[in-house]
Amino acid sequence: MGSRPLLQRVRRYFLDTWNQFDITALFFLSFSLLHCLNHRLFPSSYESGRTILCLDFMIFTLRLIHIFAVNKQLGPKMIIVGKMMKDVFFFLFFLGVWLVAYGVTTEGLLLPHDRRIPWIFRRVFYRPYLQIFGQIPLSEIDGVYFGVASILMEDANPCPNTYANWLVLILLVIFLLVANILLLNLLIAMFSYTFSKVQGNSDIYWKSQRYNLILEYHSRPALAPPFILISHLHLLCKRHIRKVQLVEIREGLISLSPD
């Protein structure tokens, strides 16, 4: 029974989104530094460590968004962004089905003889996604052939098949109609509903965020690492040398000592 509150606190710690950011960032930092220090034994590990360190910087920077919870205007916007991310997640299911259906079909019609697997996957997913934003490969659809010198090269792109390029144009029109008009407007409507729903209760959301933030930082030391050791030494002196009892926080209630 005594270990149950501890397990609950550990579980609550790992379920918190910002704590997950911290754990991921620290794991990436340790992993990248380990790779960078071993670059003399494994020269290729330096590049992988540098890549992970760049991603780790992005995670550490995004962690700063937590500070916005104090502000009355920016605090509710964090809730709105979080709920919109959930809307985007469900929206990607619809978009992914259309991307795969259109990408595989156009790849089979335009470049049926290409055997390069990485390039096939790139064109199936990457090219339809860029076409949503207006980047349309008209040279491949219209059947513009490359020069003889480029065709004879080993890694040259194969010539597009012109047998059914008219069908690719029809599929492109249907894909852009569904993706740009139907699905994007559906996403905008979901965003509008989420914004109006949260904005109507913005004061309640902000007060809840502010309370949780104050509760979180109430018992934390004032100094940041690596100077946090000074705060711990000061805390040790207060408790064990000066015999000063601390304020305890349990389940959101601040209970003072009887003295």
UniProtKB/TrEMBL annotation:
Subcellular location: Membrane
GO molecular function terms attached to this record: calcium-activated cation channel activity; ligand-gated calcium channel activity
Protein topology in the membrane: Multi-pass membrane protein
Single GO cellular component term: plasma membrane
InterPro entries (UniProt xref): Ion_trans_dom, TRPM
Pfam families: Ion_trans (PF00520)
Record's protein name: Ion transport domain-containing protein
Transmembrane segments: 20-37, 49-69, 89-111, 164-188
Keyword Cell cycle: no
Highest taxon, organism lineage: Eukaryota
Keywords, sorted A to Z: Membrane, Transmembrane, Transmembrane helix
Chief location bin: membrane
Domain Ion transport residues, every copy: 9-200
